[in-house]
Amino acid sequence: MTEPTTTSAATGPGWAQRYGAALMNTFGAPQRVLVRGEGAYVWDADGRRYLDLLGGIAVNALGHAHPAYVAAVTEQLGTLGHVSNFFATPAQVGLAEKLLALVTPGGAPAGSRVFFANSGTEANEAALKMARRHGGAARPRVLALEGAFHGRTMGALALTHKAAYREPFEPLPGGVEFVPFGDLAALEAAMGDDVAAVFLEPIQGEAGVRPLPPGYLARARELTSAAGALLVLDEIQSGMGRTGTWMAHHLPHVGGGVVPDVVTLAKGLGGGFPIGAAVALGEHAATLLGPGQHGTTFGGNPVAAAAALAVIGVIEDEGLLAHVAELGTWLREKLAGLGHARLAGVRGEGLLIAAELTEPVAAQVAAALLDAGFIVNPVRADALRLAPPLVLTTAQAQSFLDALPAALDAAGTRP
Ligand SMILES: *Cc1c(COP(=O)(O)O)cnc(C)c1O
């Protein structure tokens, strides 16, 4: 997997020290310094090539430097790069229309509206503000699931379950309660006419690629409708084709045909350019946030919108939804069939996959894979996450399957 080392300005000692001296230490030490990418591969500063099976955490839908994507972004930047939201642009309007067409099979119901943000956490902030506006003083409660990850800004953090993320920043916006994952009886018991919204990930990504059990979303829809609460689906990681359908909740065994009230998107939406969206569905959507009640300088910026339109266009033109469904099924079957003693099972849909390990050695396996030229993510101590570019080929996936057993073996011998 190693190409001849090239001399470049990026090569040489000192990156780790410079990073450590200049950047806030929120992410730990970076594993490599990456300098370029093409398709499903990236290269580090020493010229080594890696198969990128994480895709910038489910972001690089088209891989790296896809020509149609680069052309669209370049063209937009060379034409009109930014205007404030006092003005509209064709790219922004076109993207909103496109999202309304694909967020629900057959198109969004009449009255649906899009709010553009710049990231996942901001999309959820917008959704939380919609929930507050919907609920008012009569509905102070918001429900989320144990294991939920909805972002790191204060509102989205209030919806995020992990204590280590939340507790240093309390008090957080109030009213959020967590119910056990996948437990419909618990959701039913927590539900009431004082609930403004229920936030759900159809597949919990950060918790280790955990799909909601079949039937859960359909029942959650019934319960929220009966109580008059919003059903907010966070498809930030699972949406935009990652599961072989535009949205994870379009998979019949996941979504059961539900139409949520709000869908939040980011990650794969921009294919690497920062953009998020909160799509409100149905006739009351337009009233959830009114003039002056929310805003953003950059949200829906024409370059970001052009990037997202290019992502959607390439997914359509290259038939990537069918490709993801097919390759995802193949890869999950092959993983499950590897028969390695350290592999306990496989979870996920499409190209959002977790390989479950029998021991908490995911970090060591990921490190061994990185040394072998493969980027994966130890999402849990006992699970590896794969969220590769949707353009990954079968041959590339096979090269990973070929390398995995040795990395699993090596884990036991690493410190
Ligand atoms: C990544 C993620 C977020 C937060 O998105 P950012 O762009 O990192 O703010 C929210 N929800 C889910 C499900 C995510 O995977």
Question: Features of this protein?
Answer:
415 residues, binds pyridoxal-5'-phosphate, arginine biosynthesis, disordered N terminus, 15 helices, globular, 2 domains, 7-stranded mixed β-sheet, Aspartate Aminotransferase, domain 1, Aspartate Aminotransferase, domain 2, alpha/beta, 36% helix
The tally of beta strands, per DSSP, is 17
What is the CATH topology classification name of the largest domain? Aspartate Aminotransferase, domain 2
Q: Span between N and C termini?
A: 24 Å
Largest sheet: 7 strands, mixed
Number of H/I helices: 15
The level 1 CATH classification of the largest domain is Alpha Beta
- Average pLDDT number: 95
- Low-confidence spans: pLDDT under 50, at least 5 residues? 1-11
Would you tell me the structural class of the helices and strands?
A: alpha/beta
Rg measurement, Å: 21 Å
Q: Outline, from the CA principal axes?
A: globular
Bin the helical content: 25-40%
- The CATH superfamily name of the largest domain is Type I PLP-dependent aspartate aminotransferase-like (Major domain)
Strand order of the largest sheet: 4-12-11-10-7-5-6
Which hetero ligands occur in this complex? pyridoxal-5'-phosphate
In what range is the share of β-strand residues? 15-25%
Count the domains: 2
The assigned CATH architecture of the largest domain is: 3-Layer(aba) Sandwich
